[in-house]
Write a structure and sequence with these properties.
The protein is an alpha+beta fold. Helix content is about 45%, strand content about 15%. It has a three-stranded antiparallel beta sheet with strand order 1-2-3, with no helix packed on it.
Length: about 70
């Protein structure tokens, strides 16, 4: 989690602060993309009714695109 107050104190110049925020944003985005790439081909299994029906979707996939597991 990013400590905004600390960043503001550390980078009082708005241009420097903006540059640091962008840097942290892109580092975080890259890390998340790498995590999802490692999960390629793996699934989340969900059962909204306590096990009567089971749905599968790729990790990071949209819940609206899940499929019923028979």
């Amino acid at each position: 989690m990013i400590d905004i107050a600390n960043l503001v104190n550390q980078y009082p110049n708005d241009m420097e602060l903006g540059a640091k925020v962008r840097e942290l944003y892109f580092e975080n985005k890259k890390m998340i993309e790498e995590i999802f790439e490692q999960q390629d081909g793996k699934f989340i299994y969900e059962s909204p009714d306590g096990g009567k029906t089971v749905y599968q979707r790729p990790i990071g996939g949209d819940i609206n695109n899940r499929t019923l597991v028979k």
